[in-house]
# Entry
Amino acid sequence: MKFDDKIPIYYQIKNYIYGRIITGKLVPGEKIPAVRQLAVDLTVNVNTVQRALSELISEGILESKRGLGNFVTEDQAAINQVRHKMIMEQLHAMYENLHNLNVTDDEIVQYLRQYIKDRRTNKDDQHN
Amino acid sequence: MTNTIEISNLTYHKNYKSILEDINLNIEQGKTVGLLGENGAGKTTLMRLIAGLAKGAHGTIKIAGQDAVAAKKAVVSFSEQLDGFNPSIRIEKIISFYEDVYPDFSVDRYNQVAGFLQIDEGLRLSALSKGMKEKLVIGLTLSRDTKVYLLDEPFGGIDSMSRKKIIQSIIKWKAPDAVIVVSDHYVSEISSILDEVVIIKDRRIYTQKSAEEIRSQYAEGIEQYYESIYEGNDMDD
# Structure
């Protein structure tokens, strides 16, 4: 994984793990790699990984079991909440960016509909 | 947190020329620190002073509370460039030399690091490529069991795959309470493993900052922040 050096790395590690959980690459109850292994895999500082994991634990996304390691929560409601949060963040960024270009709310909806329609057609084209 | 390195009022002159002026620096236990600065800024000199390899400075340097040179040498592992060895020496001989000289050198650990970095011990020192020699230096440096590891520009002129391997070995074999200081004049590759950066400019410590703080406070990369200091755009003003 490549990090953006302008954004705190612990934050990017959190988003990376959220993403793995939301997309099902990490399933509820699954053990995540040890701190040092994660640090080596992601080429980041152990303390930074530790900070990200501590926050995920206090948010209830990960569960720390003494002596056993860290596990993905089995609380589906918590996972849904994270998914919702991630979606809202993306929407928020898109909305802000378009508003900064003086695009109105109605136009945003219209463009988004058209965009999705186009993407679907393109996808169908690719399959044919 | 306890400080592993404590430097106060350090000044170093060589042949009447000022090399370092009024250095005050504390580094906490367990931190990985990037020591950044232009060539000639005094990075290597500072490291050699910390390691007890350069003498004649004014001021104090304490490592894990110890002030005496012999005591410091026992708790600091410095990335020697192996210049003192005959170029025709075989790598395995260098390893036995380290084992003899440093009671804390672990052959077991060396073999693990060397296996990871794929170092060929059968070769002679003169036959090593730049990248391979750097890997050997890192392997030897990390295989001592000390409080402080000083890696002086470990990435000079080597390919990106070797660089990545070296960085991974630093993460993999760093003891939780050990301090690692890595000096470099360009940072993008190591910035993700740093807790802090210390920038030397004009023979002085210009700043010491947490890497994550630079990212969150200035929305800048470490490289950018460092360059802005050298270009004179002081972000603190």
Notes: Residues 3-230 of chain B form a domain with the Rossmann fold fold (CATH 3.40.50.300).
